[in-house]
Amino acid sequence: MDSIRLFLGTYADFDILEDDYTDLLENFKYSCFGKWVEPENLHFTYHFIGEVPFSTANNIKAALKDYLREYRSTLVFEGLGCFPDSRQPKVMHINIMNNDKMLQKIHKATEEILKRFGYKPENRPFHPHLTLVRIKDINHELFRQSFGKYKDYYFGEMDSFKVCLLESKLTPRGPVYKLF
What is the reported pTM? Predict the structure, then answer.
């Protein structure tokens, strides 16, 4: 049976982040070691759907069609964060703020649709963020210094965004994403 690995997400406009991304790479090069997300892959995820049969993927796409579009709503990229926290970071990300709560509305509505296809919602709250790096090793002292510079840093904003159903193919060099 043919299957496909899917998630619902939104790409960041890299033109907004390009200079700061280069600065982040430079500032963290001696303190944060791991897999940095390629600029063309910077996105945030509403739902990781996972492996589904191809026929189910087409049904999911049809059910989500009203949400797979452009939205006029401002996304503000501000401050760095870490999961689970900055003392034991495994993932470093840029926080995303959305004053009109459009992201939360989309998340909740699409979650209800996906439940019909057996999707199991995550237990943790939805926290929109752009993953920058999956951390393998860290120099804690240097990391704290660099992290502190960007804790509340304003990276920019997007006046609109698009919700996409994306395929994720795993390769030895990392995931490759494309529209489904």
Answer: 0.92
